[in-house]
Amino acid sequence: MKRIIVSLLSLLMLFSVPFTVAGASNLTTEQKFDVLKQKNIFTGFADGSSRLYESMSREQLAAILFRLLELPSTLSSPSYDDVLKTRWSYQEIEAVTRAKLMGGTGNKVFSPMQNVTVEQLAAVFVRSYGLSGGGSTPVTGTVSKWARGAVSLALDRKLIPQLSDYTMDASRALLVEAAYAVYEDTHVEPLHVRSVEPLSYQSVRVNLQQWTDNADISRFLLKDNYGNKRSIQQATLSQDGMSVTLWTDRLVGGVTHTLYVDGVGWNYVTIPDDTTKPQVTSMVSNTNRTVEITFSEPVDTSTATNASNYMLNNGLKLTTIQISSDQRKVIFTTSEPVDGKTYQLTIRNVKDLAGNVMDTRSDLYFVGSNDNTKPKVTSVQINANATITVKFSEKIRPEYAVLNDRYSIDKGLSVIQAVIDSDGRTVTLKTSAQQDATLYTLTIANIPDMVGNVMDPSTNWRFGGVANPGSPIVLQSVQPTDRNTLDVTFNRALTDTDVKNFKLTIINEDGTPVAWTDWQSYSRRKWGSDRAVTIQFRNKETNPNLFREGHVYVAKISGVAELVTTNNADRYTFAGTDIINRDPFVSQVIALGRKQIKVMFSEPVKNVDESAFRIREKDGGTVNIDFDELNDTGKVVTEVVLRLVDELQANKTYAMTFQPNIITDAAGWNGLKTSEGSNPYVVYFNGM
After folding, report:
1. Same domain, yes or no, for 126 and 26?
2. Are the C-beta atoms of residues 236 and 244 closer than 8 Å to each other?
3. Neighbouring residues of 32: CB distance < 8 A, sequence distance ≥ 6
4. Residue 6 contacts residue 71 (beta carbons within 8 Å)
5. Backbone angles phi, psi at 38, to 5 degrees
6. CA gap 344, 346 in Å, rounded
7. Record's Pfam families (predicted)?
């Protein structure tokens, strides 16, 4: 029954989107029907058609739920007089009845041929969760009196869309879309892990070989070298879907831990405890007398909310203070400021979670404002490439303007990306696939101006769909992976020529032009992604500190064909990092057989040759290597298979060490890690 409820939750959530599901497969509804038909979940009609736009009957719904949720069938007496054992849907109807998913329409009457309405779907699904009574969302459309509470509860949870008539029939197309999404959700592929990389004493990154959109925290388990389970508090999927960052409880530095990803274990050594002081990275003041301070890392609540650690001049007083749930932002209110007057803020004695005390900051200034004018939308325009340009009456807060949930479109169309222009007043929206000859209505809400005035909802912005737009390349992000390496991500796949001609220039650092003297770069397609480029820099140093934490950089991209450059779309502002570019290292060794092992690296490497490796029994003799199966030192790889002369023995532990000046990173600048302090770097593995 638990599986039924979980699956129904997925099904119910997806019924709120008629024909387009954000994040789901790009298949058409007809193609999804064909897939489900191959899986024997749908059967189709005798003439082979799907009849997607016909209404669905109660027995059709029962049959799909029966097959999709794999409900058990047992021999029993008929529960309904109008569903005899000879009826094709008898077992299915009996199964959903026993599971209490559906019931009869009268005394021993199921009405198998009766159509299913939207309000009936709402009632079935809400009842599945044990909910009763009414919800908080007003029901403005036509609805039966008995179903009003269930419809309101379903609307609260966005289980069904807002409609003008909830008594209308639900189509088979709706059922196909929902059933396909549930099928995908219940057939999750294991994550294909490339490497596990510690980022701090409380975070570790799982680098993937293939893209994923599922980073559920339940897929990960962490244990220390004593077998004790350690808490994983949060799992965050990267923008490109190629890595997952896990936030853990405080771990002791220098200790080997095992991270299990979908049941497969990966060893890594924790980074020593944090000794970096917290820093103020931004300050924003609003007209409602609030000031928002953002720190570089989570800070201690007791010191961050201590009013004596904040001082204001010119007679301005601090009245309230609070901290955000992620403990990185402190928000306080003040007495009434004088419009246009400059105030100085001094912050001191705030600690991070490791107890490091910040350096006193007395260089923070803001201007008092009594601006109470709310921003408005002045125009909405659909473009030839199917993007939507939204213009506002004044500059708006960029961190809110780029949130997709601030924009809603009817008829199942969803906003999948919002980008604010450098003028601070123009936002470009990218949507899911639009339909030709279709009129859409856009609503925009909950976006504040630069001083905090929140707009009133702006509705009834209409535009016609563009079904087959061109496909220009749009720069999506520039993200430092360490102090001298950047990942640059685009909206679609790059050609080999694009990657070959790719060029990135740092225009300025903290507003000051950057001198490029002695800078060199190495760029390649990001491992596991066709939409991203990794570019590594060096000057006179192999691993220079180019992108420093606390500093802001502006990058400009060139060399990519069809790159959108209007309104500085080829530029991207990013912050530096304190992560150093570590030498590549062997992250894991796995025995594939008695005379075959796989060696996995922490990042793409080249110059791989069997002479770089040494193997011995942990407390015994040497194991000789015959050859590496790659046999190509110029190829960039993340793993290699070694063939052995000597056989490995089961239940024995082996140690692998590494020779210097052979294997390098993909750029050829950093050699493979061969030592740990004054001792050789060793990776242990078991025979089989």
Report:
1. yes
2. yes
3. 25, 176, 177, 180
4. no
5. -65, -30
6. 7
7. Big_5, SLH
Same domain, 294 and 362: yes
**Spatial contact of 225 and 257, defined as CB atoms under 8 Å apart:** yes
SS3 content of the chain, % helix, strand, coil (to 5): 15, 35, 50
The tens digit of pLDDT for each residue in 589-613 reads 999 889 999 999 988 999 999 999 9
Count of Cβ atoms closer than 10 Å to residue 19 Cβ: 17
Q: Report if pTM > 0.90.
A: no
Shared domain check, 605 and 531: no
Beta-carbon contacts of 463 under 8 Å, excluding residues fewer than 6 positions away, are 380, 381, 382, 388, 439, 440, 442
Structural domain for 540, as ranges: 475-575
- Residue appearing with tokens 């069997």: 610
Query: Is the predicted pLDDT of residue 178 greater than 70, yes or no?
Result: no
C-alpha to C-alpha distance for 211 and 217, rounded to whole angstroms: 17
Which positions ≥6 away from 352 have C-beta within 8 Å? 274, 276, 277, 278, 295, 297, 298, 299, 300, 358
pLDDT in tens, 213-253: 778 888 899 998 888 899 998 998 888 888 999 988 888 77
Amino acid in position 274: D
Whether the CB-CB separation of 637 and 605 falls below 8 Å is answered with yes
Residue ending a domain, among 128, 155, 185, is 185
Query: Smallest Cα–Cα separation from 663: which of 599, 579, 618, 574?
Result: 599
The amino acid present at 407, given as its one-letter code, is Y
Domains held by the chain: number: 6
DSSP annotation string for 71-112? --------S-TTS-TTSTTHHHHHHHHHTTS---SBTTB--T
User: Which of 423, 400, 533 has the alpha carbon at shortest distance from 479?
Assistant: 533
Task: Give the C-alpha separation, 452 to 290, whole Å.
Answer: 9
Query: Token pair for residue 147?
Result: 């179903």
Whether residue 89 contacts residue 62, with contact meaning beta carbons closer than 8 Å, is answered with: yes
Residues in CB range of 330: below 8 A, 6 or more apart: 292, 293, 295, 299, 304, 305, 321, 322, 323, 324, 350
557/471 Cα distance (integer angstroms): 18
